[in-house]
Sequence to fold (166 residues):
Amino acid sequence: MRAEQPAIAAAMKPETRTKVLFVCLGNACRSPMAEAIASRLAGDIIEATSAGLTPLGRVEPLTAETLARNGYPSAELESKGLNLTAIKEADIIVNMSGRPKEFAFECSSKVEDWRVEDPYGADADNYQRIFERIERLVAELAGKLRNGTRTRTKSGNNVETEGANS
Fold:
């Protein structure tokens, strides 16, 4: 039985990365970009996933092209729908759907709204501009998580400590 104890202890060890679920409408542009950016830029602190309120079923080619042009992999990205398991498992849900969190999510306490324009149907320059905005927002979130100004409470809710910028 002693041989099993280290395995049990390892399994019970708290997760060191914050589970962040990025959500947009179709999970074809913004949220897959955010997932790819967070995975590479902040993989040490963020475990990133993404989903869509009404998934398109594919990642838009300009999303993949924009990510590749900026040095981010996209081969593993897929368009998937939002489900209850993903919501429950997330520590933070980043809502880029354009719908207020109170209307898009039943429990909005761990949701933060990011105002990010939907590039769907736009040209490559717009995709690049949206990419740069998302990259900045992900970097800001990662910075807050790293320096402790964005933390999880025991209930799983997220709070920003004093002095943190929204």
